[in-house]
Amino acid sequence: MTAIVIATVTVGIVGILIGVLLGIASEVFKVEVDEKEIQVREALPGNNCGACGYPGCDGLAKAIASGEAKVNQCPVGGQPVAAKIAVIMGVDDVGASEKKVAFVKCKGNCNYTKKLYTYSGLHDCNGAMVVPGAGGKSCEYGCMGYGSCVKACEFDSIHIVDGIALVDKEKCVACGKCVSACPKKLIDMVPYKAKTLVQCNSQDKGKTVKDKCSVGCIGCTMCVKQCQDDAIHMVGNVALVDYSKCIECGRCAMKCPTKVIISDKLVTVEQEIA
């Protein structure tokens, strides 16, 4: 009986000592956490996508609280989240943040791009990059359609339609995961309001492009010559729009012989530049 009592007392004393030591250690080694950082983290959506340029929402919350990042740095949360964080940080001006969406620079679906062979391997773009021609399509610069970008998207905003990836801009939150997932660097982030878009990424020359895809950019420079605002240029053998200058007049799209440039102004300018 005496042994049991002694053992009980000993365990109790050891437990008390450990508790005291842990309490002292917690005070000595505690890390001060900014209250604003906690509040900012609670306001963030919690997707941890990294599109803000920081390692997840925790990293962004810390950066915002310290003044390193802007209150509107989160592309997923957009203006509503930015407004909440601005209140927490005591900032009056949230700042203008233009919404952006992902855009796939390829129009070469199954109807337009020639097929070299039937690919029956792993349906993953990164995996298909190691096979001859990087998939069954003849254009080595075009979308393979195996869905690495689809798998990367957490918001169901990108799907494979007729052999190429298409983005639903209403669902896209500009997290950028599809951009990172595409091994051919076919996906860009463009302004949500952009109406003039070049659906090609090929660096082949004109005849080679036509031999592979009937709707590819042939590098004719007709769009460049037509633009009066210096908003479109050739980068290598493909046209690229400067959205800071583009006024969405649609003249470049109207003159494009392969109709690889999207514009909602085609009808309105047809008579003007005919």
Notes on the structure:
There is one protein chain. Helix content is 35%, strand content 11%. The radius of gyration is 27 Å and the shape is elongated. The longest helix is centred in the first third of the chain and has 27 residues. The chain has eleven helices and eight strands. The C terminus is likely disordered. It is an alpha+beta fold. Strand 6 and strand 7 form a beta hairpin. The strands form four sheets. It has a two-stranded antiparallel ribbon with strand order 1-4. It has a two-stranded antiparallel ribbon with strand order 2-3. A two-stranded antiparallel ribbon has the order 5-8.
Residue windows where pLDDT falls under 50 for at least 5 positions:
267-274
In terms of DSSP E residues, the strand content is 5-15%
Number of strands: 8
How many helices in DSSP terms?
A: 11
Structural class: alpha+beta
Write a concise synopsis of the structure shown.
With 274 residues, this protein is an alpha+beta fold. It has helices spanning 2-28, 35-43, 56-65, 78-89, 125-128, 148-152, 177-181, 206-212, 222-226, 251-255, 266-273, and strands spanning 100-104, 158-161, 164-167, 187-191, 197-198, 232-235, 238-241, 261-262. Helices cover 35% and strands 11% of the residues.
